[in-house]
Amino acid sequence: MIFLFLLLVPAVWGCMPGYEAERDRLREHLGIEWVPKGLAKSGWSSKAIRHPSDLNCDFSNPEKCRWKNMEDDKNMDSRDFYLFEKIDYTEFPALRVGPGPTKVQQGDKMIFTGDKKREEQHSIFYSSPINCQNSTGNLTFTYWVYNSARVEVVLLEDDGKGGYKMVYDEEDRPYLNCGTIQLNTECHAEIPPRDKPFRLGIRAYGISTTDGSFVMIDNILYSASLCKVGIDVGDNFKTTPLETGAFGKPIETSSQLSCDNFDSNCRWRSGGEAKTTWRRTSSALSSDLLLNATGTSTRPKGAYAVLYVEQGTPKNNVDILRSDPINCQSLTENELTFRFWEFGQIELEACAVDLMFKDIECLPIPRASSPANVNLTFRKATKNFMITIRIKHFNADFDNMVLLDDIAYRATLCTDALSVFDIGQSFVSTPMLSLLLNRNVEKSQDLSCDFSKRASSCLWGMLNQADDATEIAENTWSVGHGPLNEEKLYSLTGISEGPQGEFGVARFETGGTAILLSEVIRCALDNVHVQFRLWTTGSAEVKICLVEESSPSLLDCQSAESGDVVVDLQKIRRPFRVAFQAESTDQGMVLIDDIIVTGQICPPTAAKQFSSKTFRPTADIPDPNVCRLLSCDFHLGHACLYEPSKIPSSAVHGINGEKLTAFLTRNKRVFILESPQFRLNTVARLHFDYKLEGDANLFICNDSGTKELESCFKVEGRNGNDYIELLASDTKVYLITRLSETGKSGSLEVSHLQLTDISDQVIC
User: Which N-terminal stretch is annotated as signal sequence (predicted)?
Assistant: First the structure.
């Protein structure tokens, strides 16, 4: 009698006002509660199932169940099933509700249908399609009925009019064993083999009493041998979305299109908006499957890309695999290689397409190549294109699958350097205007150098060409100018950002060594660091070394890698130099920029505490850089950095036999040879050889920092060697020859200009 109230149907699925009491009794006597909209979503699909287990359902996740209620417009039933949940431990009354178990776990879910009308009511819950069944299948489920309600299993076929019809042929109908007396009895149906598509239906009927009757269903299980519409990749075959590092940014080197793991380093991606997309997997396929498909058991290694095309999929729903764009490449050479495995009846092609996916060139991929390496060359694609791998044709009557692995691309991009020296057409180098200058290093920051103005203000330089120490370095440093082609630089060095402005360069055509030395540092006291930016190409490399002041030997060398480099110096209690030693076994180049030295060093006034025996103060030594500016031997008919002043009545001159000769006449009475501008650090002497003939006289003049032609003196002799003493404030020197007031003609020969210190010691 307690169940006479249970089948007020609106109380079950309508939750309409006025039926709250009936719902309370359902909760009280059965311990079940309606789940609103519990079956609103399901995994039912018009596509045929691929595995029998696809139809298993315990309603814990009803949205994944491949079953649903029969639609109202099919006119095949009068009621729907609804989802209920067991909310407490109340047992079902064994003699009234069965034959399913009386004890149901709290949280379990099941579907429920019923009514309390006299007219016959029935409900159909039916499956996704089954294309065909090779052998007898088995469908089982747990069920409970109350009063007159009963359950059966039916087979449904398409009726050709958009609906379904039940199969009534005796030989095709399921054999049913749905006991109603014994407790814990399942409903078991044997499904005969079928060679055409059908659907399974669980039909509740006999709901026709005013006392109320109902049916509850749970734990649907289906087993059978299905016809093979899918490729048997195994139960453990799992795929994930193909999430790579491809975001549409053009590649910088062709090697960036190499891909063997399809991870964040891969520059390939599923390319369009098609529903069937490329995915990633590392699942192992069976040797039998591989052997049957390709004739070999060779399998992809690690992670690889997979495209699975289900039966009946339209071609326009199958996606492509595409690379990131290639801005520009040479036609001289390119090669795309990859390996693939093909399952089914499928044809692939690789295409170069423009950025709007318009074909430029397509190359077929021979099926016989699987799974060996495929090698393809594009002969028409040069600018702004992508490479795609796509399905050209497939048999839609079956499932098809393609695996792809070990993609590699080799090409000469327009931004690739053609040699270890190719860093752009704008790159030029000029001689460095700095030698070893023997200037004082007051503080560590004095050694900082950005190579501006051809490094003329840097306290760094190459070894003196007159020094025996040049035996350890046969190449020279120069100053480079840009701007550089950053793409080419990246292809050579792996560093995208190049030096700015001027920078140091060591170039090696056939290998060798080039050394750049600092001025003498009296000692390193605390936290001395040498920082710089470095780029190397070819076989070139760089070491940072310490050099004894009195010896050319390189000590305590540390190798430096390209990039931002920081070298820490230990405390050193004697004078030393820092050396950049660039060396190469073959062709190569070293670029260095932005040298910054920090930390505490000994100032020159403290030098005597730590001086070597060979140390002498540098304050009295003229700047060797000025020596280079002012010294000249007129070799090869050139006046070095001196220039004849262009004034009215200037005499004719010429250079021959390493001598400059000026010819004076009444109309050309004056000749002025003007030095470049310089800046001395101490007193020095400029020596010269000369010869005067006829009525010519010679005067030596200089400019100071504040006065032009501040002082001149007349050279009294007519032939020999003389000098002018230059002060630290002098900025220019002039050699002026002119005729005497009554003179008619004359000449001057001058040669071998040489700067020395006040002891006449040559300093360059």
Answer: none
The verdict on whether omega for the bond into residue 193 sits within 30 degrees of 0, i.e. cis, is no
Q: Is 699 exposed, middle or buried (0-12, 13-18, 19+ CB in 10 A)?
A: middle
Residue with tokens 């000469």: 412
User: CB of 548 within 8 A of CB of 556?
Assistant: no
Report the mean per-residue pLDDT for the chain: 85
CA distance 613 to 396: 92
CB burial of residue 160 (10 Å; 0-12, 13-18, 19+): exposed
CA dist., res. 319 & res. 329, Å (int): 26
* 739 CB-side CA count, 13 A: 17
Q: CATH number for 428-616: choose from 2.60.120.200, 2.40.40.20, 1.20.1050.10, 3.40.50.170.
A: 2.60.120.200
pLDDT confidence bin for 726, thresholds 50/70/90? confident
Residue type, 632: C
Q: Which residues pair with 474 in a beta bridge?
A: none
Q: CATH 2.60.120.260 in the chain, residues?
A: 240-413, 625-756
Please name every residue paired with 541 in a beta bridge, in sequence order, or none if there are none: 583
DSSP 689-720: EEEEEETEEEEEEEEESS-TT-EEEEE--SEE
At 34, the amino acid letter reads W
**Residues 757 and 621: beta-carbon distance below 8 Å:** yes
Q: Omega of the bond prior to 314 within 30 degrees of 0, cis?
A: no
Q: Which two tokens stand for residue 538?
A: 């070819």
Residue 10 has pLDDT above 60, yes or no: no
Q: Report the DSSP beta bridge partners of residue 461.
A: 517
Say what the pTM is: 0.45
Total number of residues shown for the chain? 764
Q: What is the pLDDT averaged over residues 493-514?
A: 90
Q: State yes or no: pLDDT of 16 exceeds 50.
A: no
Q: What digits encode the pLDDT tens for the residues 550-590?
A: 666 667 788 999 999 999 888 888 888 999 999 999 999 99
**How many whole angstroms separate alpha carbon 478 and alpha carbon 434?**
10
Dihedral sign computed on CA atoms, order 435, 436, 437, 440: positive
Checking if the pLDDT of 522 tops 60, the result is yes
Q: What are phi and psi of 629, to 5 degrees?
A: -70, -35
Token couple for 88: 């407490």
CA gap 506, 503 in Å, rounded: 10
Please state whether beta strands 659-665 and 719-726 pair in parallel, antiparallel, or not at all (unpaired).
unpaired
Collapsed DSSP state (helix, strand, coil) of residue 493: helix
At 437 the pLDDT is 66
The single-letter code of the amino acid at 66 is: R
pLDDT tens string 626-645: 888 899 998 878 888 898 88
Fold adopted by 625-756:
Jelly Rolls (2.60.120)
H-helix or E-strand spanning residue 625: helix 624-630
Of the candidates 365, 343, 274, the residue with the CA atom closest to the CA atom of residue 313: 274
DSSP state, residue 169? -
Tell me if 202 sits within 8 A of 153, measured CB to CB.
Answer: yes
Where are the CATH 2.60.120.200 domain residues in the chain? Answer: 9-223, 428-616
Residue 611 scores a pLDDT above 80: no
Domain 240-413 matching CATH 2.40.240.10: the answer reads no
pLDDT recorded at residue 414: 82
* pLDDT tens digits, one per residue of 455-484: 888 899 876 433 433 344 457 899 998 888
Determine which of 168-177, 260-269, 438-447, 653-662 has the lowest per-residue pLDDT on average: 168-177
For residue 609, the model assigns a pLDDT of: 41
DSSP assignment letter at 396: T
Residue at 442: amino acid letter: E
CATH topology for 9-223 is: Jelly Rolls (2.60.120)
